[in-house]
Predict the 3D structure of the following.
Amino acid sequence: MSGHRVLVVDDSDLARTLLTRTLEKAGFAVTAASDGAAGALVALRELPSVVVTDLDMPVMDGHQLLRLLKSEPSTASMPVVILTSHGEAPSRFWGSRIGADAYLTKDCEPAELVATVGRLASRGPTTERSHATPELGPLDVLGRVVRQLDASLLHATLVNTLLERCLGATDLHAAGRETLQVVARVVDANLLAIGVTEPDAATLHVLITKPVSLRAAERFVSTVLATMDPGPRVIPDVVLTGATDGDGDADASNIVSFALPLRGASGLLALSPSEPQQFESTSRHLIQDLTTHAGLVLDNARLGQRLQELSTLDGLTRLLNHRAIHEVLGHELERADRHGRNVAVIICDLDFFKRVNDTHGHVAGDTALCAAASALTRVLRVSDACGRYGGEEFLAVLPETDLEAARRVAERLRRAVAEHPAALPSGASVTLTASFGVASHAELAAGATADTLVSLADSRLYQAKAAGRNCVRP
């Protein structure tokens, strides 16, 4: 045990004397202090190998001493043993939460104390006395306590702000945007990003705090995506919030990134600090401490997004399900009536689809359905909506579209299905065709319902079937 110095901090003269004798008998060099403030002064001045401290003490208690020592760079790795008469769970929890290396009660056997101190003293690196600060005085310790309390309050406020703003987000882009806006309040950076990489998807949200050039934003996005490494088959879903019409530039070679802990995915927080040296000294530790909470926010948003998808998307084709596409149509009809505009629908039914299932099996039929859905969505506009209406039927809702324009879209849809054979799991391929019925809101009386419009399109679908299939009506 020689060479290891132990600091004993206890306001009881008897307890200090007994602890000092026990540890000195085991070969330790012991220094004693009568309260937490005096103990902090000795620890910072002399850098002992281990600190053994009571909890209930005047001026500064053991928990406050522990938090101060763990927050100071020179003593952060110094092992601290809490030795107290308190054995209740809250005290143990708080002690371990703020960094205690061991927790013993005063009625423990002397051998257990000696073994614990010996284990901790030999486990950690030997502290160089040359790094001690003998010039410290009581006011210096008080100042460090105040700074530590301010830092803890800032961290708690930042975490609380993050959780208040972000836990209500139900999709990754909303959660990413809100998280970045919180981070931007404590970091000077023109560009910040949050990325999530999942086995089959990648989401990146970029926040531009000051206008930069489009080229700078693209360079930043490219660098962050390279770090995320979503894989060659994944098309990242990238959204930028902020202006890209400025002339500001961003140094893509000076991007700082932090890993975000996620379940079943990898997360990344990246930013390009305006002043790298200042960021390292003032903000890095704040962001590092925030990563666990940011991961919680993103996991919560992923869960909300997944639940939303389960309630609105068809499980096979990933198009809107029957209920969701019907709701979209209802909203578009209300908007059309309110603003005197038009909306059209196209209903599509794959021709002789039962033959695919009977000939190749239902797994192949599912593959063919997905191929048809993909062909349809490639033709439609971003503003259009498409859903699986039932079985092998699909319904497309086209806002701001009259009957003739919708008929032309349906013709393009028909060609897309016919010209893109579905590759089956067996290696074979099957060519599909489809029949289409088109109807426009303008054909109906005012106040017509979604069911009425779909019924009109459906009747025209049957006309297309009767005309020989693989055609559009009207």
